[in-house]
Design goal:
The protein has 222 residues and is an alpha/beta fold. The chain contains 3 helices and 9 strands, in the order αβββββαββββα. Strands 1, 2, 3, 4, 5, 6, 7, 8 and 9 form a 9-stranded mixed beta sheet that branches. Strand 4 and strand 5 form a beta hairpin.
């Protein structure tokens, strides 16, 4: 077989092998890099007052105060969309391909409004920025929202610090730190997200009762 005939067969074979190799590399890259998954904090659990229908909400008395809610802050490390997990104390790690759709503090704001509003302890509950004037102000800070793997089963811990302030005198009339730890059904991001939603809703229930009680106490003092 002359050189021309050999080249006639070798070149197509080499090209085919190159295409197969490129396809294999592409498949390996696809398998090694899954698409990102995005999760939310919401009131989907349904058992929380924040998800109650409007008809079931308590009616606020005419003397009830108006509450202004400032957007929540977040402690350093918890102010991004990255989902945090902890295997060692003081060391925060992040899931590589799973994120919140928004920073938790931003997702928490409307949930705070809905939960406190449904107590019926306030004439109105308004999220800033707003032109509305208020009698009381609620300031909150996310201290931690993390999937903890130091225990079995793993769990998600959510800690929120809250201050209720007289908006006219700037005096703090009540403050409290809320903490909830909920076991995760699985040691993966989705299991942690489900547990995180339950932990957030537990804290919202406690926070709502705290705000309502403080508002009633402040009203009785006047």
């Amino acid at each position: 077989m002359n050189q021309i005939s050999v080249a006639h067969f070798v070149r197509p074979l080499a090209a085919a092998l190159c295409l197969i190799a490129l396809g294999a590399c592409s498949a390996l890259r696809t398998a090694a890099t899954p698409p990102p998954a995005f999760y939310s904090l919401d009131s989907a659990r349904g058992a929380v007052s924040a998800a109650a229908p409007a008809a079931a909400r308590a009616t606020a008395p005419a003397t009830a105060p108006t509450l202004i809610i400032n957007p929540p802050y977040a402690a350093a490390g918890f102010d991004s969309p990255r989902i945090i997990y902890v295997r060692e104390n003081h060391k925060l790690e992040y899931f590589a391909h799973s994120e919140w759709v928004d920073p938790p503090a931003r997702m928490l704001a409307p949930l705070l409004v809905a939960a406190v509003e449904n107590t019926g302890a306030f004439r109105a509950v308004v999220l800033t920025p707003s032109a509305a004037a208020g009698d009381l102000r609620l300031d909150t800070e996310i201290i931690r929202l993390q999937h903890e793997f130091q225990t079995q089963p793993s769990r998600v811990r959510f800690t929120l610090r809250a201050y209720l302030v007289d908006d006219k005198t700037r005096r703090v009339i009540a403050q409290r730190e809320f903490d909830a730890a909920v076991p995760s059904a699985s040691d993966d991001p989705y299991g942690g997200v489900v547990a995180a939603n339950r932990a957030v809703q537990t804290v919202l229930e406690d926070l709502s009762a705290f705000c309502a009680g403080a508002a009633r106490s402040a009203r009785m003092e006047k």
